[in-house]
Amino acid sequence: MTRVVRPLLGLVFVCALTLPLHGAGARFWEVATLADFLKGDVNNLSIDLHGRLVLGPALTEVAAPTAPVLWTGLVADDGSLLVGSGNDGQVLRVARDGALSTLFDSAELEVHALARAPGGGVYVGTSPDGRIYKVDAAGKSAQDARQAANVADEKAVSAAKKADAVEAATRRLVYEVVLSEDQGNFKFGKAELPEEAKARIDEMVNQLKADPKAIYIEIEGHTDSVGTNHMNDTLGLERAEAVKRYLYEAHQVPLHKMNAISFGEEKPVAPNNTKQGRAQNRRVVIKVLA
Questions:
Q1: From the centroid of its chain, how far is CA 154?
Q2: Fewer Cβ within 10 Å of end Cβ, the chain: N or C?
Q3: How is 102-123 classified by DSSP, letter by letter?
């Protein structure tokens, strides 16, 4: 009796060892509808050309930029990944260790194209204005250099204008001409210099030539109150610049002897609640200082 029991106990033990191995094998199931399929969690699956579900490639997250859209990518010479982003118009650099940094921050909304540039660096194609920048490995572009030069020029011009203003402040008014719409000059919303205005400017210049002095000319642009402040400031300056241009081109008055400024609607000479008053306020004042 004892001989029979021992083999049976051994068989039970072997079966107990084999059961977990059988349970760890592949499991297959079938679904009949899309709703049944969507009940499960689909992770790392792909669909082949025949419509069959197969395991997808293994994915590893390299970096997590905050940009909402990534439009294009390029592997740089040093092995890092360059990515063009949307909404902020940046070129992002992803180093080999996954470190994320900004290589170039453009003034555009989107970076849609990246290409290697001869001699190093990268070309950056942007939108919506369709600009192409050449960016070096340090993230600098020719535009940066131009912007720096423009800032320097603006500072120089500003300093010159301040010097002219100081000089003008020490001068006295010797002659003044007002070109306004109620006298047949500037029309509503227009900056073109009418013939009547040119004739009055010619008359002023002839009088100045009859009594030549070291003079300085200030040209003020004014508007009525119709429209936005920005629009009126722009229109006032365009009218003043039109007079300045005519003095330079028709009478060769040196540009450094003239200054054009816009006061927009800030300095009315008549109420803006009447048509006649608004016509008087649309004017250019030419002041001759000596």
A1: 20
A2: N
A3: EEEE-SSSEEEEEEEPTTSSEE
Residue 159, both tokens = 């300093």
Rounded-to-integer distance, Cα 137 and Cα 124, Å: 12
Joined tokens for residue 207: 């009088």
Q: Looking at the DSSP assignment, which residues form a beta bridge with residue 169?
A: none
Q: According to the model, what pLDDT value does residue 6 have?
A: 45
Q: How far apart are CA 223 and CA 283, in angstroms?
A: 6
Mean pLDDT, rounded, for 16-35: 57
Beta bridge partners of 260: 219
Residue 212: cis peptide before it, omega within 30 degrees of 0? no
Which residue in 289, 276, 43 sits closest to 172, CA to CA?
A: 289
Residues 6+ apart with CB under 8 A from 241: 191, 221, 260
Q: Which residue has the tokens 């949307």?
A: 86
Determine the number of helices (DSSP H) and then strands (DSSP E) in the chain.
6, 13
Q: Rounded to whole angstroms, how far apart are CA atoms 109 and 127?
A: 6
CA–CA dist 203, 107 (Å, integer): 48
Cα(192)–Cα(238) distance, integer angstroms? 9
Distance CA 100, CA 80 (A): 10
- pLDDT tens readout for residues 43-94: 677 777 887 877 777 777 888 888 888 889 998 888 889 999 988 788 998 9
CA–CA distance, 279 with 186 (Å, rounded to integer): 9
Average of pLDDT values for 4-8? 43
Cα 123 to the chain's mean position, in Å?
Answer: 18
One CATH from 3.40.50.720, 3.60.40.10, 3.90.550.10, 3.30.1330.60 for 171-289: 3.30.1330.60
